[in-house]
Specification:
The complex is a heterodimer. In chain A, about 70% of the residues lie in helices and about 0% in strands. Chain A has helices at about 5-10, 25-50, 50-65, 80-95, 105-130, 135-160, 170-195, 200-215, 230-260, 270. Chain B has a domain at about 15-50. The longest helix of chain B is centred in the middle third of the chain and has 24 residues, at about 15-35. Classes of the chains: A mainly alpha, B mainly alpha. Chain B: InterPro entries: CbtB_put (IPR012667).
Chain lengths: ~270, ~60
């Protein structure tokens, strides 16, 4: 079997001989950076034209309805203790920085998309290496489906994408449920895909189902100033844009890995190009 | 068909696992910071991104 050092040479000729120790980390970062950059740029474009306009529209309801998510509960009257007074004053003075509407807001969203694209790429590529690595762009598409299922589909079943001004349960409990659902779904899929064992596959299905039996934290009332069709459009836009993001991320990661990380694979590239 | 071997077959398996874990943790840390940080400034900067990625947000 040929060694994979060609990647090291390609990446950084100067350090090829002297520092082979971190070659795995460097190659993962390299693949994640290219695939994450591309997928992140595409996601930013998709959001700009699909989800962002719906968010802006929802904010008009938010501002009209007086449901300001930054505001603390209204404190009592003059008769209440001084502590309550201090609480009432606090939100007004700690108005945190936010990007100005328009280009600045777009730029920060795009930056967040690209950075998170690379970060999701790091997770995807590193995890897939434990399973032998993404061999080519087609395998990458399926790895992308898995990422989509883990990070969008599963948590989105219990906690559908929300628009501003929509009622929601306590933030921390939702974040905990979201995280546990992601972990359980990833573990479940891995058991099904990589362990050739029926009991473990059953356990995998159970892990995927369990968070939804427990159920996501829900608000006391779903009554919302946001029209149902606006929210529905948003759910579809978020789901589809994330699907495209994950498929691109996986496919590009597989393509880059195949093309630059292995010499024998070069012969395959004629068909893929 | 699958002619691409896993990355890092030339380094020790322990080193390989450490490096892969490091890469995955770095990714998780960045995603967590962008999507979950309670810092108001991070929330505001990445607000539309959070909504569009269906992260729990305010």
């Amino acid at each position: 079997m040929l060694p994979t050092t060609i990647a090291t040479r390609w990446l950084s000729p100067a350090t090829n001989e002297s520092k082979p120790t971190m070659s795995v980390f460097r190659n993962v970062v390299f693949i994640a950076a290219i695939s994450g950059l591309l997928a992140g740029v595409i996601l930013a474009a998709l959001q700009t034209y699909s989800t962002d306009p719906l968010i802006f529209k929802a904010e008009t309801y938010e501002n009209a309805g007086g449901h300001d998510h930054g505001a603390a509960p209204v404190a009592g009257t003059e008769a209440t203790a001084p502590a309550a007074d201090a609480q009432a004053v606090a939100p007004a003075e700690e108005e945190a920085w936010a990007p100005a509407d328009g280009f600045e807001r777009f730029a920060y969203s795009a930056l967040a998309n690209i950075v998170s694209g690379i970060a999701f790429g790091l997770i995807l590529v590193a995890v897939s290496e434990f399973a032998g690595g993404i061999a080519n762009w087609r395998q990458g598409v399926f790895w992308g489906f898995a990422g989509f299922a883990v990070f969008t589909l599963a948590p989105g079943l219990g906690l559908p994408p929300e628009l501003p001004a929509m009622p929601a349960a306590d933030l921390v409990s939702r974040q905990i449920w979201w995280t546990l659902t992601v972990v359980a779904t990833a573990a479940g899929l891995a058991l099904i895909a990589f362990k050739q064992s029926l009991p473990l596959a059953v356990l995998g299905v159970a892990l995927i189902v369990a968070p939804h039996i427990v159920g996501a934290p829900q608000p006391e009332s779903h009554e919302s100033p946001i029209p149902a069709d606006l929210h529905h459009s948003f759910v579809v836009a978020v789901t589809i844009s994330n699907l495209v993001f994950w498929v691109v991320l996986g496919a590009v990661a597989g393509y880059v890995r195949n093309r630059f990380m292995s010499e024998p694979a070069q012969s395959l590239n004629g068909r893929l190009a | 068909m699958n002619t691409v071997s896993a990355l890092g077959t030339d380094v020790s398996s322990q080193s390989r696992i450490m490096q892969l874990a490091l890469a995955a943790l770095l990714g998780l840390f960045v995603v967590g910071f962008l999507g979950f940080s309670h810092m108001e400034v991070v929330h505001n900067a990445a607000h539309d991104y959070r909504h569009s990625m269906a992260f729990p947000c305010h």
